[in-house]
Protein: UDP-N-acetylglucosamine 1-carboxyvinyltransferase
Organism: Alicyclobacillus fodiniaquatilis
Amino acid sequence: MTYLRVIGGVPLSGTVQADGSKNSILPIMAACLLADSEESVIEGAPALTDIDSQLAILTGLGAKADRDPHGRLHISASNIKTTTVPFELAKKLRASYYMAGALLARVGHFKVALPGGCNIGERPVDQHIKGFEALGATVKIEGGYLIGHTRSRLKGNEIYLDIQSHGATINIILAATLATGQTIIENASKEPEIVDLCSFLIKMGADIRGAGTNVIRIQGVDKLTGQSHRIIPDRMEAGTYMIAAAMTRGSVYVERSIHYHLSPLCAKLREMGVTVIDDTSGIYVNAERPLKPTVLKTLPFPGFPTDLQAQMTSLLAITQGTSMITETVFSNRFQHVPELIRMGASMKVEGQTLMIDGVRKLSGAHVKATDLRSAAALALGGLAAEGETIIDGLDHLDRGYSCFEAKLQNLGASVHRFGNGAKLHLVSSHDAIGG
Ligand SMILES: CC(=O)N[C@H]1[C@@H](OP(=O)(O)OP(=O)(O)OC[C@H]2O[C@@H](n3ccc(=O)[nH]c3=O)[C@H](O)[C@@H]2O)O[C@H](CO)[C@@H](O)[C@@H]1O
Ligand SMILES: C=C(OP(=O)(O)O)C(=O)O
């Protein structure tokens, strides 16, 4: 077992760089399957277990998929030997289901085990199925697999998404790129990762208009070829470090973060009294003044992202006054709450709403992360807490944060990984910092 030990109390200070976006690179890796010639080279791929899992899936399908020593991914899918993604591989990440749209377009059939990923509530695929069927495929769920085929080439169609689903928008775009005729996706997701995927597909030869708006038009083409692409910065990772700066009353420059992608977070932090300044290369956060409580609701982009909700919970836990968070995207995304309460937070979940009565300080405790962003939220709690916090469940953290400890150490934090039977020993921050 491996744990993270965080000694709180140090205001973060310095510069941290955002890596390439996990939620952008994973569908782009699936899109590489659409090219029957030329290698794709993806730059800016961080060292994440989700990326390793997606590489293993591509290799299993017969593609050549590797990471070079400079962190670039090389993917070439001239041969596809199977269209089955077994449970053992698919269960590791939600993004495994993007193989369905790509395989359906490229070879006309797929059998992909229903995915894993974060345990944050129901993650149905009815909108993905609706889209594939509208394009002419026959799709069923059987034995834990999503199975689809089409007898002839997929045919473009109009598809209205009942829910503005990020995943379904991506899967339908992937399937529609090689269809005949035009596909129009209405009520499409507008998230930056969709725009990045479409930029890559357009370089490959796809004809796509409207990415980043609610209506995306895809005119099918006959062929796509591999291309090079640099992934956009990870707004969730960048946002996590911005919140960490605010929590520790620090002063941090998050290089490569894009203000437009983070505008809901920047707005909320400013409302709370944090200084947030954006320039051409990043965002500067300074939180020396006392902060004010706030109210926020998670929504599809450009609303407040659900992937930053847990981290904001940690910040509001130590912001005196009453705050309220409503989670509208996922049905079970407050699993960090009992752990923060273990650290002294005062908050209560009422349905999809969390009422927070901000306390002056959290205190270190042994806590367990049950999903990716809750792991980050607990680490942030630890950075601001008195004493030592031990965090269990790092497999979740490693899915989405690369060099997490090193980046925080660089900002002055005391964060270390230890494990394999190492003795847990809780100490006070005074002892630990050597005061
Ligand atoms: C809208 C939103 O914030 N999406 C987030 C979601 O994308 P992800 O693609 O995982 O989720 P979706 O956007 O598809 O889901 C949004 C909502 O739609 C529902 N749904 C989805 C598909 C479907 O076929 N039927 C259905 O009912 C889901 O249960 C959920 O309540 O998690 C990603 C990883 O955390 C984030 O990067 C995305 O920003
Ligand atoms: C929940 C997340 O990832 P996934 O949807 O891949 O499980 C996330 O990125 O916060």
Summary: The domain at 2-19+233-433 is CATH 3.65.10.10 (UDP-n-acetylglucosamine1-carboxyvinyl-transferase; Chain).
